[in-house]
Write a structure and sequence with these properties.
The complex is a heterodimer. In chain A, helix 6 runs parallel beside helix 7 (188-205). Chain A is built from 10 helices and 12 strands. Chain A is globular, with a radius of gyration of 21 Å. Chain A has helices at residues 48-55, 82-88, 110-121, 126-139, 145-148, 158-170, 188-205, 216-222, 240-245, 250-258; strands at 6-15, 22-32, 37-41, 64-72, 75-76, 93-96, 176-180, 208-213, 225-230, 233-239, 307-309, 312-314. Chain A is an alpha/beta fold. In chain A, strands 6-7-8-3-9-10-12-11 form an 8-stranded mixed beta sheet, with helices on both faces. By secondary structure, chain B is an alpha/beta fold. Chain B has 13 helices and 12 strands. Chain B is globular. Classes of the chains: A alpha/beta, B alpha/beta. At the A-B interface, helix 6, helix 7, helix 8, helix 9 and helix 10 of A face helix 7, helix 8, helix 9 and helix 11 of B.
């Protein structure tokens, strides 16, 4: 196995507050191999976007990395000084955010934003940078790129803007792209186009992707592996096929059963009662225990680590091999 | 089965012109956007009709027209034989409003943040004079909360003390307070996480079964629509392009737009079914294309599609607005 491009080890993110600090991410560990697409899925508040923000060094203060480490190509990046991180971000790690309108500057033309990014990171002159910008826009499927490059973001539709944002993220040929809900603001027909575009371009540019989304369908379409998050912790991680078809964690089972399927008829959906706990009130033991249909005494006291569970790894005592059930 | 709601050639235009002074100085004409343009359908008692489409297709405007939140520019909505627009202007308005209620998309915006749940759910009861005294009011509110899976103690809470799914249950309880026959649900689960969405959809289905409710269900999510509906209308730029019962729509979509929408859904089962890549985006509703408004994105478009607007015709038991299907090209 090749060495991982990104390695996240026991990551903890805290938000200090007057009433003690809130643990938003607790003991998150995973790796991303070069060229791999890792999906991160979970419900709102599970900490998936926060994981992405921690990796690109854009945690909103007062949030901070309180423990663990993030390594990019073997080098620690979670404690880099601001200027060092700035050089890495954009050049080696690109980012795509949910809302394409707020991630573009409305006062500058698309071309100016692209050439600025290109020239910050690559040794090109203005003419070469413009040429590269046009090339990138063409690659993302924007027709008449040579004319549209001088237009402003408001002159583009939602899907077209997201193409521009993808072009921006790819501008300096980064090795990793962190894409946070890149298709959530888009209609289904446009979403399908953007997903296949993202997948194709990352393959062509050899970039690995961390795709954060709440949409299991998008994950199934795009990813090689998927990490399921719950209440700031990893619930399950494994190959997409295995997680979708043979989920090992009761939360993943519930999540999959709650999605209305296109190919079968069910009178009722599987439902997980209750809601995800707030960060201030995460129960002891396994965070999922109050909602879990297969809860045991041990789950209420002892927190499970990620354990081997068939083809995946799940943080659930059901898969503790040392005990036979 | 009797028809509860009938919609005939419903249309709604919004004036989006620039201010008068600008029109005079810049010589700009008045501008209208036709959000809903000639929509007809009917809903049987106890059934669910789902309207599905992408943003800007006019599905929410239809929902608002149906409960009288907008006045139609043309056409009419009949509820149990009464014209909604004229009834709501007359003395029978309150009696009609009691029979139809609406559930909105965003439970964070649709509940008054300064009111306790007992007031939110109780307001329709007092407003319609359905209870005589406070004790009766309290009993009814408890009963309603129980119906949607909340506990009596929740009465004294404010909206912010609930999660998104619980808030949506409060909205449902409020909508059910007047014992309506017809509920218009405008994207009731779009703001919710999947596990919570499942809870809300299950409640809605249970209520339909136990109380014989009729739903108009607006959604952009085809999988949800497939789960809840009996009939499905697919909308595109203010018009219904295909109207069929659920089984035939999903098994055999006819209109090219319906096919495209179905192909665009991510394949969660990873079955590897063949899919045509989706083309283009929804055009600007201010200047819709001539003829069939879908023709710029349609792989089957010909000269007739560019010129002539297709009517919604009944073809093999399905109502469909497409020249290609009508001519047998598709």
């Amino acid at each position: 196995m090749t060495s991982p491009l990104l390695e996240v080890k026991n990551l903890r993110v805290e938000f200090p507050s007057r009433h003690g600090s809130l643990l938003a991410l607790d003991d998150i560990s995973f790796t991303i191999a070069p060229g791999e697409i890792l999906g991160v899925v979970g419900e709102s508040g599970a900490g998936k976007s926060l994981t992405g923000a921690a990796i690109i060094g854009l945690l909103d203060p007062p949030g901070r990395v309180a423990g663990g480490e993030i390594r990019f190509e073997g080098r620690r990046i979670d404690n880099l000084p601001y200027e060092e991180m700035r050089k890495l971000r954009g050049r080696h790690i690109g980012a795509i955010f949910q809302d394409p309108l707020t991630s573009l500057n409305p006062l500058y033309t698309v071309g100016r934003q692209l050439t600025e990014t290109i020239r910050t990171h690559l040794p090109l002159n203005a003419a070469q940078a413009r040429e590269r910008a046009i090339g990138l826009l063409q690659e993302t499927g924007i027709s008449a790129a040579a004319e549209r490059i001088d237009q402003y973001p408001h002159q583009f539709s939602g899907g077209m803007r997201q193409r521009v944002v993808i072009a921006l993220a790819l501008a300096a040929n980064p090795k990793l792209i962190v894409a946070d809900e890149p298709t959530t603001a888009l209609d289904v027909s446009v979403q399908a186009q953007i997903i296949s575009l993202l997948k194709r371009l990352c393959k062509e540019h050899g970039a690995a992707v961390m795709l954060v989304t709440h949409d299991m369908g998008v994950i199934a379409e795009t990813c090689d592996r998927v990490a399921v998050m719950y209440a700031g912790r990893l619930a399950e991680i494994g190959p997409v096929q295995a997680v979708i078809h043979q989920p090992a964690h009761p939360y993943t089972v519930g999540l999959m059963g709650a999605i209305p399927a296109m190919d079968e008829d069910r009178e009722r959906l599987l439902q997980i009662d209750g809601a995800m706990p707030r960060l201030t009130a995460i129960p002891p033991g396994c965070a999922f225990n109050p909602r879990c249909p297969r809860v045991m005494d041990r789950c209420r006291v002892e927190r499970p680590e990620l354990l081997e569970a068939g083809a995946t790894r799940a943080a659930c005592w059901l898969h503790d091999a040392s005990i036979t059930l | 089965m009797s028809t509860l709601v009938e919609v005939r050639d419903l249309a709604k235009g919004f004036d989006v012109s620039v201010p008068w002074s600008n029109r005079v100085i810049e010589r700009r004409p008045r501008q209208w956007v036709h959000a809903v343009d000639g929509v007809s359908f009917s809903i049987e008692r106890g059934k669910t009709l789902a309207l599905v489409g992408e943003s800007g297709c006019g599905k929410s405007t239809v929902a608002r027209l149906l409960v009288g939140l907008h006045d139609p520019s043309a056409g009419e909505v009949l509820f149990d034989g009464q014209n909604i627009a004229s009834t709501l202007a007359g003395p029978q308005a309150l009696a009609l409003r009691r029979r139809m209620q609406m559930i909105f998309q965003d439970p964070y915006a649709s509940l008054n943040p300064r009111w306790k749940v007992r007031n939110i759910v109780g307001e329709p009861l007092t407003e319609h004079g359905l209870v005589r005294n406070d004790a009766e009011l309290k009993d009814r509110v408890v009963e309603l909360l129980h119906l949607v899976g909340l506990v009596p103690a929740d009465m004294e809470k404010f909206a912010h003390q609930f999660s998104g799914g619980q808030r949506q249950r409060v909205s449902i309880a409020r909508a059910l307070a007047t014992q309506p026959e017809f509920l218009v649900c405008d994207e009731p689960t779009s703001a919710l996480d999947v596990s919570v969405q499942a809870q809300v959809l299950n409640i809605m289905k249970d209520l339909q079964r136990s109380r014989g409710l009729t739903y108009l269900f607006i959604s952009h999510n085809l999988a949800v629509v497939r789960h809840v509906s009996d009939q499905v209308g697919v909308m595109y730029l203010g018009r219904v392009v295909e109207l069929a019962d659920k089984a035939s729509l999903f098994a055999k979509p006819r209109h090219p737009y319906t096919r495209m929408l179905l192909d665009a859904i991510p394949d969660i089962a990873m079955s590897g079914r063949a899919r045509t890549p989706v083309q283009g985006e929804v055009p600007n509703p201010l200047s819709p294309p001539s003829g069939c408004s879908f023709h710029p994105r349609c792989p089957y478009a010909n000269e007739r599609c560019r010129q002539e607007r297709p009517a919604l015709l009944e073809i093999q038991g399905v109502r469909i607005a497409c020249h290609a299907v009508e001519e047998g090209r598709l």
